[in-house]
Amino acid sequence: MPVFKTFLKIVMKNKGTIIMYLAIFLGIAIPITKLIPDASSPSYSDSAEPIAVIDNDNSIISMGLENYLKKTQRVKNINTDADSIQDALYFRDIEFLVSIPSGYEKDFLEGTVPVLNTTSVPNSYSGIYISMQIEQYLSFLRIYIAGGLSPQEAVQKAEEVMNTKAEVSLVNDGKTLSQSYKFMFYYQYIPYMLLGILVQIIGLIFLSFNKEEVRKRTLCSSTTLRSRNIQLFLGCAVLGTAILVIVLVISFILYGSELSQSGVFPWLFLNSLTFLLVSISLGFLVGSIVKSDNQLSALATSIAMIFSFLGGIFISQELMGSQVQKISRFIPTYWYIATNKILGYAQSSETLDFSSFLQNMGIQLAFAFAFFSLALAVSRRKSGRM
Prior knowledge:
By secondary structure, the protein is mainly α. Helix content is 68%, strand content 4%. The chain has a four-stranded mixed beta sheet, with helices on one face. Strand 1, helix 3 and strand 2 (74-75) form a beta-alpha-beta unit.
């Protein structure tokens, strides 16, 4: 099996690429799954951002505002010169800066609207939220002072109102996350790894066999185009399965019995195997088209990234616009992620939506068949020209 042996040689020569994509996968998947809270105890809490307050007034109202912010945010002490402030914002030591000018309380009590100097990190949502908190606090303060309360009494009342906590309950859209949803995130990044590795490896093999001297030897040998493709497919299947086994072993090391008892692990693995076929067939198609190493490298990287972003691996499908979602349906990673989410919501095999699961798996297989058919058509056309 000369093609299979050549395949193994190329794999060993490019083991650095395989290790790199495995490392990227583990570097993304493991931290994310570790950061996910327990599905059985959903919770909500206000986020406290690092901010700085510069009080140039040192009045009851200015100190009241600073004390309020200390209770709702993480107020940090910084140097007040312009360079230090710019550095703190640039390196995100703070997200927001409040500078209270001298004479602020005097203007406030006289009924004018004194200006607070605020600065935030560009395009920061937290900066908008903190500005809204400050404005709400000052609005209550104005109401109490207009009602005849002293600055000290108004500050106390405003803080009491702002510290009133609402009871928040988290609800969902009728779908309940299962205890296995963390594994859904772990398996979510597998397509990026498979595409990055297999498209690159298969493309290199096609380039090797399309070299003039190799092509002539192949024509003189008994190896047919069909035999070559079968051996190449077997080699890719062995490599892809080995990678998935490594991923499987690591997932069991991380999650142990929790994974095996989830009830959906076999289906997660089956979904990954199905996408393995998609990756191999797409690798065949790319390999039959490219003519140089540079073309292959650019195309393989672009496919892995575009399919990952549009398919919902790096950006959640729910966050995409309606037009983008329509386009992403023509990408196989979309259906892999959709299947992955079905498994994430399933409490066990009994509660799995098998109808949607099988439909999505069928669409992935249809993509694999289409890519492989196109690759064979291109290969036969090229061989007919030789």
